[in-house]
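Before the break, one more example. Copy the sequence into your notebook; we will annotate it together after we see the structure.
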Amino acid sequence: MNKVNENNPPYVSDDFQIGPDGAYEYTEDITLKEKGMTDKELQNVPQMISAKMAAQQQLINLLYSQVMDLTMMSKIELGDDVIAEIKQLKYIINGIN
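Here is what the structure looks like once it is written out:
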């Protein structure tokens, strides 16, 4: 947040937005190029995203199998709301019921 002093006088802005933490002044998003990424780094962004998404999917698969194993071994059941949420999310992600 900007502090008011001689070098930084107060000003009025009509570009405020409301977020989960309250009001804030909108600032434009910085592009990857503006962050100082080289052209070669920019070309690798899709591969970096793909690798990250693959790792996330592996983690999801691991956690899902662990939940299934634990529920079977412990003879506990997931709540109907949890099962419904899992089905809904799987449908959104994979188009699977």
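Residues 89 and 96 are 9 Å apart (CA to CA). The longest helix spans residues 39-74. Try to locate both features in your own notes.
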